[in-house]
């Protein structure tokens, strides 16, 4: 077996050899103009080493990867009460789909589809100002990554707000079913800012250590919550591409439309990958391939 550093270099070179980078998210103007031909991969191991290749110190918009942190914060605050409002089943539909919400009376399938994440953010607000709920999520991310150098890009949040008609529709639909405590604009404003958190792959891999239960990780998420979040990542973390990701990669993962993916090899490694172009599911195109190459080369799998 090659040392991990060589594997990462090979993956980096292989990604640059292929010419299909996918397409950056077009519905958020600030993300649409990001050049797709960029790549970074960071891997934190159980012994505390963090190995990298590519543009690993370049911040990118973590988008839906933030749903993992918001879920951890919400479970930490209200625990299992969340599950009275959100399910734990894969949806088989796209990240922003409204189809199941009608059939299932406003109870989103899981906390990773947009509707479920909006309800989770609404639950995290629990009587507080958006600023306080955002500070809690950002504070958790910073504690997990052991750095204060993680910020929200207000331009990205504003850009998504300006064009976020689909998410507005979801929030109003949730409200009509009594599954939103706050005004849709207030909850969505919080959600858009949470999605606009920027991190480098190095920071994201460091943040994932607590979910991977690595020894070097800060203990900010309980073992029980880490297990549950990993289970949801493998079943729901890539929307209607979750089955394919589990088949190709064999590990829990969460994608974002900024192109990032957080992948967890329990007790072995925390992995962050970023190329901005997406596949037709809205998951990172080259990132999914890179994750598959990594697990193929290392043999890491939960199966
Ligand atoms: N902020 C994005 C949205 O709500 C997140 C979607 C994603 O990253 O998958 O559409």
Description:
With 303 residues, the chain is α+β, with helices and mostly antiparallel strands. It has two domains: 158 residues, 3-Layer(aba) Sandwich (Beta-lactamase); 132 residues, Beta-lactamase (3-Layer(aba) Sandwich), CATH 3.40.710. 48% of the residues lie in helices and 11% in strands. Strands 2-1-8-7-6 form a five-stranded antiparallel beta sheet. A hairpin with a 3-residue loop joins β7 and β8. α3 packs across α5, α3 packs across α6 and α11 crosses α12. The longest helix is centred in the middle third of the chain and has 16 residues. The protein is globular, with a radius of gyration of 18 Å. The model has no long low-confidence stretch (mean pLDDT 96). Bound molecules: glutamic acid. Glutamic acid binds next to loops.
Estimate what percentage of residues fall within beta strands.
5-15%
Report the major sheet.
Answer: 5 strands, antiparallel
Helix content: 40-55%
Small-molecule binders: glutamic acid
